[in-house]
Design a protein that fits this description.
By secondary structure, the protein is of the alpha+beta class. The protein has helices at 78-90, 114-129, 136-144, 150-155, 190-199, 213-219, 222-228, 234-240, 244-253, 275-288; strands at residues 10-28, 34-53, 59-65, 98-104, 158-162, 167-170, 177-183, 230-231, 258-261, 268-272, 293-299, 305-306. Helix 6 packs antiparallel against helix 7 (222-228). The protein is globular. Bound molecules: cytidine-5'-monophosphate (C5P). Residues 32-34, 36, 116, 147-149, 164-165, 190-191, 194 line the site of cytidine-5'-monophosphate (C5P).
């Protein structure tokens, strides 16, 4: 870990959101989770988490930026829970506290792991703030206790997630992929989407990564990647939010290589052939007025990183 931080300093971590290039889900398990096989790609849409010294036992959070009013700021905030968990398990009995500030760009409950990203950012920022002797692997193991996507948010890049999505293997990926994201008004709760998934009887016993996906990534073939994208949660998200189908159709009409719901939605991700095509698609999509906002991103990018 970095050298100790003085009480006046702020530790700032930048952490990326994700899209799932494939998300295959089994049936609900006795613990309420679903076994997954998912290929994550971290994309260049970032939240920032600042951590600074606070009196022992004080853990506060302030949220600024897009949709800040939709994020809880009490003890149920995932970043606060992350800081408390880290202090409790790795603080060696030291009296610790932290004031956190989260600058949000990743949509709230949007299917891009925004909450998990903030937890990942808080873990790394506090580990540095408090000068804890914890390795990246140990941080990821701890992160899995806060949410299935937290280990990936720490790691970033491209990775295959198994189990609840938290058992990661890195995946070789060549080149940069260009995406256009369409953010919708309102949220979709991940548990509600999984509950709809169960109700529709969609769980499969075969959680294979689609044929061709890993080869497409190794060869950097965007068209082949487009043909391999799959999201088992998409029918459930569409059942809860039927108007998303207009967005998916618009992407296809406007020349996206592929269109899909990101994770549990409601964000829709459009894969573009290259950067100019992404610019063109984002302009045309914005003028359709089908969503709250449109944003161009690229991936893969690194996971949680220290800025200052
Ligand atoms: O792990 P996390 O708290 O982010 O997950 C949110 C919810 O999503 C879980 O409580 C569960 O309902 C659902 N989920 C699931 N199976 C997974 C991951 C998440 O059912 N593998």
């Amino acid at each position: 870990m970095a050298s100790p931080v003085t009480e006046a300093e702020v530790v700032r971590v930048r952490v990326a959101g994700k899209v799932n290039l494939s998300l295959r889900s089994g049936r609900r398990r006795p613990d309420g989770y679903h076994s997954l096989s998912t290929v994550f790609q971290a994309v260049s849409l970032y939240d920032e988490v600042d951590a600074s010294w606070a009196p022992p036992g004080r853990f506060s959070v302030q949220v600024v930026g897009e949709q800040a009013d939709q994020v809880p700021t009490g003890d149920d905030n995932l970043a606060v829970r992350a800081a408390r968990l880290l202090a409790r398990t790795w603080g060696a009995g030291k009296p610790l506290g932290a004031d956190l500030v989260i600058r949000k760009s990743i949509p709230v409950a949007g299917g891009m792991a925004g909450g998990s990203a903030d937890a990942a950012g808080a873990l790394l920022a506090c580990a540095v703030l408090w000068d804890l002797d914890i390795s990246p692997d140990e941080l990821r193991t701890l992160g899995a206790r806060l949410g299935a996507d937290v280990p990936f948010c720490l790691a970033g890049g491209t990775a295959l997630g198994r189990g609840r999505g938290d058992e990661l293997t890195s995946v070789l990926s060549r080149g940069t992929y260009h995406w256009v994201l369409a953010f919708s008004d309102g949220e979709l709760s991940t548990p509600a989407v999984f509950a709809k998934f169960d109700e529709l009887g969609l769980g499969s016993d075969h959680l294979d990564v689609p044929d061709g996906l890993l080869n497409a990534l190794v060869s950097g073939d965007v068209q082949a990647l487009g043909r391999s994208l799959v999201n088992d949660l998409e029918p459930a998200a569409l059942a809860l939010r039927p108007q998303l189908s207009h967005l998916l159709e618009a992407g296809d009409d406007l020349g996206a290589v592929a269109s899909m719901v990101s994770g549990s939605g409601p964000t829709v991700a459009f894969l573009a052939a290259n950067e100019p095509a992404a610019v063109d698609l984002s302009v045309r999509l914005s003028s359709e007025g089908l969503c709250r906002a449109v944003k161009r991103v690229s991936g893969p990018v690194p996971g949680a990183r220290l800025l200052v």
